[in-house]
Design a protein that fits this description.
This protein is α+β, with helices and mostly antiparallel strands. It has a single domain, classed as GMP Synthetase, Chain A, domain 3 (2-Layer Sandwich), CATH 3.30.300. 52% of the residues lie in helices and 23% in strands. Strands 1-2-3-4 form a four-stranded mixed beta sheet. A hairpin with a 5-residue loop joins β3 and β4. The longest helix has 20 residues. It starts with a helix and ends with a helix.
């Protein structure tokens, strides 16, 4: 009986280890799917109308886009740049942008877009830039 229990426990342990041993590319794919299905539909931030994620496996990069209802203007660029950085920091704290992926070498290109899809603000998150961003 003990032998059988030990075998079952060992089999469960092996399955858990195999499931948890994902490589970075698998984690990248999983994050993009999860973001678009779970995070994006319920995401709320001032002036943000839509958010999406796109993964580039060969480049080890994820692109996050935040479309807004703001017009493209210098005034809006300046005003949103501060709010944009705060939003990114909050998303990292909430693990909506996983720090682990960045530390594993995945680059996040994060865009804050005006109502005509032109760039209001852009931030590139890498292991190096993360140190400065989270100070």
């Amino acid at each position: 009986m003990r032998k059988k229990i030990s075998q079952i426990a060992f089999a469960i342990m092996i399955v858990v280890m195999l499931v948890s041993c994902k490589n970075t590319k698998q984690k990248l794919q999983e994050y993009v799917v999860t973001y678009n299905k779970s995070i994006a539909p319920s995401f709320r931030a001032d002036n943000v109308t839509l958010t999406t994620a796109r993964g580039y496996i060969n480049d080890s990069k994820i692109e996050l886009r935040f479309e807004t209802d703001l017009e493209q203007s210098e005034k809006n660029k300046v005003a949103t740049s501060i709010a944009f950085i705060r939003m990114i920091k909050l998303m990292i704290e909430k693990d909506q942008i996983p720090r682990q992926l960045i530390e594993e070498g995945v680059q996040f290109d994060v865009y804050f877009l005006a109502d005509d899809n032109t760039v209001l603000a852009k931030e590139v998150l890498t292991g190096e830039s993360l140190k400065y961003l989270l100070k």
